[in-house]
Specification:
The complex is a heterodimer of chains A (about 160) and B (about 140). Chain A is mostly helical and about 160 residues long. Chain A has 2 domains: about 35 residues; about 110 residues, Ferritin (Up-down Bundle). A two-stranded antiparallel sheet of chain A has the order 1-2. The longest helix of chain A is centred in the first third of the chain and has 27 residues. The radius of gyration of chain A is 28 Å and the shape is globular. The relative contact order of chain A is 0.12. The longest helix of chain B is centred in the first third of the chain and has 27 residues. Chain B is mainly α and about 140 residues long. Classes of the chains: A mainly alpha (about 160), B mainly alpha (about 140). Chains A and B meet through helix 3, helix 5 and helix 6 of A and helix 4 of B. Chain B: InterPro entries: DUF4439 (IPR029447), Ferritin-like (IPR012347), Ferritin-like_SF (IPR009078). Chain B: This is DUF4439 domain-containing protein. Chain B: It holds the Pfam family DUF4439.
Chain lengths: ~160, ~140
């Protein structure tokens, strides 16, 4: 029994230690490859609702621009802008991200309106509605009610801008 | 009511009843045409729900003969207010159907929610209520 160390022979113990050493080396090598290799760490996939959030922020910018150039439209446009901001806040909360501090670009549809700001906004709302409908179709059950409300709201904006 | 489909059916029944009262208090072709179209749409959606629920063998409470109105409808202003109220209620009921995995497809529920929200927007506009939109149609409160 004197040959045994904790129930193992010396040779067995050496074998285990050698195996562990190999395993440790393998782990180091694999980790080393990850650290030194070409950025193989995949970037996390963007949240499927990120484009809907980006659109909401883009529409906020578009409304700000329209109200700045045509202040007489402020009463009519400010509540619609507030809706988009509420969407952005709710979507950012759902995604788990912060709202950007700088204003994002307005959608191209709104920017191409020239002097008729309202028809440009209407086009942008229509496009944004379509993408929210598509997102609603694919959204998981725990997100679908919020996305559905965003889609419905964008449709009401198109209606409100028709008046 | 725990079954969202049954709740949507109840909301559509209530809307059909309400438009019967709203119609007689409105004046002008634009108002009455809008109310008539709305009533027809709610009847169609009611029919879809009735056949859907019978196919799914779900039970629904029979529609009551009358409803307790949230306020008296005595003139055009109160009729328009009731129209907004019922469309908001329909939007809420359909929004709750969006997460359902069986029964109604999501596109139908979203179309009904959107339709009610857009109609509520038009009625608010006619009633001179501002803002005409809400950020989250169908969300209670």
């Amino acid at each position: 029994m004197g040959k045994r160390d904790n129930g193992r022979t010396r040779r067995e113990a050496f074998g285990v230690a050698a195996a562990l050493g190999t395993a440790a080396w393998t782990v180091t090598t694999v980790a080393g490859c990850g650290l030194l290799g070409d950025d193989s760490e995949p970037a996390p996939a963007p949240d499927p609702l990120q484009p809907i959030l980006d659109e909401a922020l883009g529409l906020v910018t578009a409304y700000d621009r329209a109200m700045a150039t045509q202040p007489d439209l402020r009463d009519r446009l400010a509540p619609l802008r507030a809706d988009h901001h509420a969407h952005a806040t709710a979507l950012a909360g759902l995604i788990g991200t912060d709202l950007p501090s700088s204003a994002p670009a307005a959608p191209a549809a709104a920017a191409s309106a020239g002097t008729d700001a309202v028809s440009g906004l209407r086009r942008a709302e229509k496009q944004a509605h379509q993408s929210a409908v598509a997102a609603c179709t694919k959204a998981p059950a725990d997100r679908v009610m919020l996305v559905g409300s965003v889609a419905a709201c964008r449709a009401t904006h198109t209606e409100a801008l028709h008046r | 009511m725990s079954d969202p489909l049954a709740a949507a059916l109840a909301a559509e029944e209530a809307a059909i009843y309400a438009y019967g009262l709203i119609g007689v208090r409105l004046n002008g072709d634009a108002d009455t045409d809008e109310a008539r179209t709305a009533e027809r749409t709610h009847r169609d959606r009611r029919d879809v729900l009735v056949s859907l629920m019978s196919r799914l063998k779900r039970s629904a409470a029979p529609a009551p003969a009358g409803y307790q109105l949230p306020f008296a409808v005595t003139d055009r202003a109160s009729a328009l207010r009731l129209a907004v109220h019922v469309e908001d209620g329909v939007a809420q009921a359909w929004r709750a159907c969006l997460p359902l995995r069986d029964g109604v497809d999501r596109g139908t529920a979203l179309a009904a929610l959107t339709d009610a929200a857009v109609r509520a927007t038009r009625w608010r506009d006619r009633a001179g209520v501002t803002p005409v939109t809400m950020a989250f149609p169908g969300r209670a409160g």
